[in-house]
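I have been asked to look over a protein record a colleague put together. This is what I was given:
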Amino acid sequence: MSICTKILPILALSVSLLSGHTARSEDALNPGRILATVNGVEITLGHMLALRAGLPEQYSEVSPEVLFKGILDQLVQQTLLMQSIKDKPSLRTTLLIENERRAIIASEAIDKAMGPPLEESALKAAYDAKYSGPSTETEYRAAHILVESEEEAKALELELQDGADFADLAKKHSVGPSGPAGGALGWFGAGVMVEPFFEAVVSLEPGQVSSPVQTQFGWHVIKLEETRIKEHPAFKDVRDNLENELRQSSFDNLIKKLESAAKIERINPEDFDPTIVNRTDLLEK
């Protein structure tokens, strides 16, 4: 059970256990200050702060007095329970400790690689590099009528060829959510619509209507209304995305650097039954 689920009842209990004296000297700010010992095992302020740092945001609403007592009680009780295990920890526990240690130290390495504040000039340079030239991305405004069968779609195509109004037919026959709006889909670019639909849109000239197109949603009759070249976004609108991209690039470069300098040996996944990853019962043997 996690610390977050266990600490709640302890905090509730601790209200009646608080002492009236609190150390407030400069020494109290030292993470190495010993706050308790359990059979000779020290519990320091640093231990408490590390535990506090991992608690959910909801614990910010708990008073410092209650939180302090609750966390210290938690650590004392955990130490007692740890010491009560006289035998070697189970295989599951041993491996969980190893994984947790690996993850925590790896997280520190990530923070060091991605944590330093980025200069605004670096972000603007990334913006210029990404959006320096004229935009070449085309956006499309289209409408469609979605029906369940090819026969229905062909019948609608014939009605349109005879001069029927596209929006009126969409309102009457389309089973898609855009039907009440005359089938209007608004503006979109590559990667938004499913491939067969988008390919049909790209093949049309503004004002043209497609032959029936099948997708996993049914049969479509599509009308391309107009096209435009997508404008570059303003720097302020993509600043956060650029920052994330630069930080991700720093992380990727770090991994590549570490991998190139390391000796890594792995099994060939094809030589191993992947279903064994679900055999957590093996940890109990």
